[in-house]
């Protein structure tokens, strides 16, 4: 007769817990599911655009800082070497910047935005994507607005020059 003691018994191995039930299928039409897919892809592209925007702004700010550091180093070196041009450089720094810009800008942003809007509209019309066609309205109208602003400001500047 063999007797089993507690020291000789191995702990019982329990079976794994059951898996949770699968969720029921989403009730809805194909159009609703398609709109969810479009919204997901939109937000993923917005995330990428936001990262790109932050990167561009950071690079711009870093470039400004580097430019200021280089300018200050140049002026410091000119002052330390008693250069005759140091006084001229410092005097030029204290003068306001002379702007050679036209009153309404040069119109490049308006031309580019109008071209982007037209390209998006053509792509949307050719592929039958209504979302792209609808999205083309914004850059198209902003570009047209900028070109109208350029035209009106150029006329006003000419009129002011003729009156003076």
Structure keywords:
single chain; 164 residues; mainly alpha; 5 helices; 0% strand
Structure report:
The protein is flat and about 100 Å long. The chain is built from five helices and no strands. By secondary structure, it is mainly alpha-helical. The mean pLDDT is 79. Helix 3 (108-127) packs antiparallel against helix 5 (137-163). It folds into two domains: 32-94; 104-164.
List the helices and strands and how they pair.
Blueprint: H1 30-80, H2 85-94, H3 108-127, H4 130-135, H5 137-163
Outline:
The protein has 164 residues and is mainly α. The protein is 70% helix and 0% strand.
Distance linking N and C termini: 125 Å
Structural class: mainly alpha
Figure out the total of helices. 5
Radius of gyration, in Å, reads 34 Å
Order of helices and strands: HHHHH
So what's the overall shape? flat
Major β-sheet, in short? Answer: none
Strand content: under 5%
Query: Any idea how many domains?
Result: 2
- Flag low-confidence runs: none
Helix fraction bin: 55-70%
> Could you tell me the mean pLDDT?
79
């Amino acid at each position: 007769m063999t007797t089993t003691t507690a020291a000789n018994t191995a702990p019982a191995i329990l079976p794994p817990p059951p898996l949770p039930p699968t969720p029921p299928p989403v009730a809805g039409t194909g159009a609703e599911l398609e709109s969810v897919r479009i919204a997901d892809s939109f937000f993923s592209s917005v995330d990428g655009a936001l990262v790109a925007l932050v990167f561009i702004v950071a690079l711009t700010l870093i470039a400004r800082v580097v430019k200021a550091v280089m300018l200050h180093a140049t002026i410091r070196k000119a002052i330390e070497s008693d250069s005759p041009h140091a006084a001229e450089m410092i005097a030029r720094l204290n003068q306001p910047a002379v702007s050679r810009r036209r009153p309404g800008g040069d119109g490049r942003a308006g031309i580019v935005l109008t071209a982007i809007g037209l390209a998006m509209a053509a792509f949307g019309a050719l592929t039958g994507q209504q979302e792209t066609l609808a999205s083309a309205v914004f850059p198209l109208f902003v570009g047209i607005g900028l070109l109208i602003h350029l035209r009106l400001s150029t006329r006003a500047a000419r009129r002011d020059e003729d009156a003076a």
